[in-house]
Specification:
WD repeat; cell cycle; about 450 residues; single chain; cell division; Mitochondrial Import Receptor Subunit Tom20, Chain A; alpha+beta
Length: about 450
């Protein structure tokens, strides 16, 4: 003891021990200690109060510091890995090039107001509004730039399972779906007034997405919405009339997620039957099935055309598919803890292993180089498609299961953007679809949001 502590420190410790034993009502142990110490420590009963609780405080502070040290060591190891895998070019351009930007801790904002788990998030295609839906039956609208709550929408009677912005040209709407079996449409331009409720599903509606505009001159351009439900169907709705225009049957279990292709021609869906399906919207027929997952498939995503050049080599193609084709590659995430990349014919391209729990959300980087995922292991992971899908960054995104992730839609520099947000945050226009250099004409917003069972929405931004 004398080798580790100075005489003064040893005396302080002994006094604290005597005070602790006295407070704990252990008089015999206390007397034995006093006798052992003899004259080396004299502590008056009147001064014992000063040392009461000192030992407990020291103990708890040491445990706290140990946890902080462990957290810092983990963070340090993560940053070192990042440095080891980074190239000089990526290091020098990290802060300038949106195509290479990836989220990092700490988040810009922690948005807290929900009383229960957050199930979903969605960005307004133009303004700095972010919607979140929760188990508390509410939708909250945030200003993600300022980190402030703008309003709370109370429309559903049960948990809100998904939200999405989109709709007709010049008239962006917010759609939501719920365990109360309904889909609701709200008008952001009219203080988020509930303008329409779409009943029809026979069970919980688990996902809802606006379908981007089809071919020029299409009479249904920008007016369609797709929903996925526990009743094992997908339904396509006309948002201007509120009518269900098509019901797609094929899944044999709860349909957990659905995504429309950026050109609005195809749908990709998956769920409890473990068999994702690619659908042709015009015919309503399945185009391909994807076999391989060993558990429920919870999330799906279409790869943007900007990623074709990186995915083509993985698929064994000599040259990437044309950018005019918008449904060449897809991704799925599952409760089997894996992420799988596929081509449009149902062939497995790559299996990404790294998450330690159910994968809950996927989003492709608009620049095309990365795929981002979140899972019940509380992490956000970034996979580099140019490095054989290597996981190049892992962030502890939340303190509980991470339920959702969305990327802010890119702003199209041309004036003929239609105001809808495509899958994975791609803004859409005829130019963006046909032009191989579309990525350079799109202003990528380096902003993404995650939602979690910890009741928080976190915004990661450059």
């Amino acid at each position: 003891m004398s080798q580790l502590l100075t005489a003064r420190q040893a005396e302080e410790l002994h006094k604290a021990m005597i005070a602790y034993l006295t407070a704990a009502n252990l008089p015999q142990t206390c007397a034995a200690l006093r006798e052992e110490l003899g004259d080396s420590v004299s502590v008056e009963d009147s001064t014992l109060k000063k040392y009461e609780g000192l030992l407990e405080k020291k103990w708890t502070s040491v445990v706290r510091l140990q946890k902080k040290i462990m957290d810092l060591e983990t963070r340090c190891a993560s940053l070192q890995t990042e440095l080891d895998t980074a190239t000089p070019t990526s290091l020098s351009r990290r802060n300038q090039d949106p195509v290479s930007w990836l989220p990092r801790d700490p988040a810009r904002h922690d948005l807290e107001s929900h009383r229960e788990a957050v199930n979903c998030v969605a960005f307004h295609p133009i303004f700095s509004s972010l919607a979140s839906g929760s188990e508390d039956s509410t939708i909250k609208i945030w200003d993600w730039e300022l980190g402030e709550l703008e309003r709370t929408i109370k429309g559903h009677t049960r948990a809100v399972l998904d939200v999405d912005y989109g709709g007709p040209r010049g008239g962006t709407l917010l759609a939501s779906c719920s365990s109360d079996l309904t889909i609701k449409l709200f008008d952001p331009a009219d203080e988020y007034k509930n303008i329409r409720t779409l009943p029809g599903h026979d069970h919980s509606v688990s996902a809802v997405r606006f379908i981007p505009s089809g071919a020029a001159g299409s009479p249904m351009s920008g007016n369609l919405l797709v929903s996925a439900s526990r009743d094992m169907t997908l339904r396509i709705w006309d948002v201007t009339t509120g009518y269900c225009v098509k019901t797609l049957h094929g899944h044999s279990g709860w349909v957990r997620d659905v995504a429309p292709s950026p050109d609005g021609r195809f749908l990709f869906s998956a769920g409890e039957d473990q068999v994702p399906r690619l659908w042709d919207i015009s015919s309503g027929e399945p185009k391909a099935t994807f076999l391989g997952h060993e558990h429920v498939v919870t999330c799906v995503a279409f790869a943007p055309t900007t990623s074709y050049q990186h995915l083509a080599p993985l698929a064994g193609l000599k040259k990437p598919p044309p950018s005019s084709s918008s449904a060449e590659f897809v991704a799925t995430g599952s409760r089997d803890k894996t992420i799988r990349l596929w081509d449009a014919r149902g062939n497995l391209v790559k299996t990404l292993v790294g998450h330690d729990n159910w994968v809950r959300g996927l989003v492709f980087h608009p620049g095309g180089k990365f795929l981002l995922s979140v899972a019940d292991d509380k992490t956000l992971r970034c996979w580099d498609l140019t490095q054989e899908c290597k996981c190049v960054r892992t962030i502890k995104a939340h303190d509980h299961f991470v339920s959702s992730i969305r990327w802010a839609p890119s702003l199209i520099k041309e004036s003929h953007a239609n105001g809808t947000a495509g899958a994975n945050g791609e803004g859409q226009s005829s130019t963006a679809k046909d032009d191989p250099n579309a990525a350079h004409k799109m202003s990528i917003r380096c902003v993404l949001a995650t939602g979690s069972v910890d009741k928080k929405v976190r915004v990661f931004a450059s």
